[in-house]
Amino acid sequence: MGPVARSPREGGNVRSTLRIDDPGKSAGDHRDGVLTGLIAYTLWGVFPVYFKIVGSVAPAEVLVHRIVWAVPFGAAIIHFRRQWPDVYRTFATPKTLFWLVLSAVFISVNWFIYIWAVQQEQVFQASLGYYINPLIYVLVGVAFLGESLRRMQVAAVLLATAGVLVLTISGGEFPIVALSLALLFTFYGVIRKQVVIGAMPGLFVETMVLFPLALVGLVWLMKAQQAAFAADGWQISALLMLAGPLTVIPLLFFAIAARRLTLTAVGFMQFIAPTLQFFVGIYYGEELTTPHLICFALIWIAVAIFSVDAFYTQSKKPPQAKPVRADY
Q1: Contact status, residue 305 vs residue 158, Cβ threshold 8 Å
Q2: Disulfide-capable partner of 278 in 88, 127, 139, 142 (CB 3.0 to 4.6 Å)?
Q3: Which regions in the chain score pLDDT beneath 50?
């Protein structure tokens, strides 16, 4: 899964500023934003299909390839977008680098659990995790940032909690995978919101930080003859190399969308991915029990309430100029 909509204050050099509600934005910009946003969230939504295809490969090796091959592909994107100064600045700033190392740990564990869940026929749980992720953000804001809950937010959180309880008590299945994914991605998102770097340079630095360990892991697996790469045929090797572009490309499209759309619009679109993941789970024949249906129904209602509240709150705010990153 990809990142949440980032706040306007993120990023390195702000090369231009736009009003979030700027009527001067062209219809073409909005159309491109919608298109690229749909592409990003659709790719994240069908990502489980890729992990199913490489299901014969151990999750740890898939994770290693995802990191290793994201680096050269990410470097090409960084070069094309002329974002090397942001990368150099990050490595020259110990505090920023520290936070990105920490965020890299959170996102890599998130990736591993996600890969494992898909390969273990737990796509429903993965989908559930990204549905409740925005609600976990709200709770973190209350617990650690001193924010207060609005009535509709309280209702959404209670409904989501009820859904989790139904699945745990009636279904006998505590959604540990879903909650782990949601919590890890929330902590990752909170850290990234505090770091002054754009989405693409940030991901590149994170993968660069993880690259040495991932490369060592890959070499060790190959020497121990436990790696599928270069041993199970060129098709599997090519698919594993594809993990890098599949990691970077959705983020690039997301970055373009985030630049052209309002944060509210991007927020609505983030539910496309878990919805598609849910249908992927159905396609692969995962058992959809009555407790699952009740749980998802409550979560969907909670998401609807949460989204309506976000839209209503945003619409009541007076128009104000806010800088938006032009080079995510």
Answers
A1: no
A2: 127
A3: 4-24, 321-327
Return the residue matching tokens 């058992």: 287
- Here the contacts of 100-104 (C-beta below 8 Å, separation 24 or greater) are 100/195, 100/197, 100/202, 100/205, 100/206, 100/209, 101/209, 102/191, 103/188, 103/191, 103/192, 103/195, 103/202, 103/206, 104/205, 104/206, 104/207, 104/209, 104/210
Residue type at 65?
Answer: H
Q: Which of 281, 277, 299, 9 is nearest to 134 (CA)?
A: 299
pTM, to two decimals: 0.83
Closest CA to 97 of 87, 106, 107, 111: 87
Query: How far is 257 from 252, CA to CA, in rounded Å?
Result: 9
pLDDT at 328: 55
Tens digit of pLDDT for each residue in 53-95? Answer: 999 999 999 999 999 999 999 999 999 999 999 999 999 999 9
Asked if 298 and 63 count as a contact pair (C-beta separation under 8 A), the reply is: no
**pLDDT for the residue 147:** 75
Structural contact between residues 9 and 280, judged by C-beta atoms closer than 8 angstroms: no
Q: Which residue matches tokens 């470097």? A: 75
- Cα 281 to Cα 123: distance, rounded to the nearest angstrom: 5
* CA-to-CA dists, residue 169 to 284, 292, 294, 300, angstroms: 25, 11, 12, 19
Asked if 135 and 302 touch (Cβ cutoff 8 Å), the reply is yes
What distance lies between CA 240 and its chain's CA centroid? 20
Report the first-to-last Cα separation within the chain, whole angstroms. Answer: 17
pLDDT attached to residue 318: 60
Predicted local confidence at residue 321, as pLDDT = 46
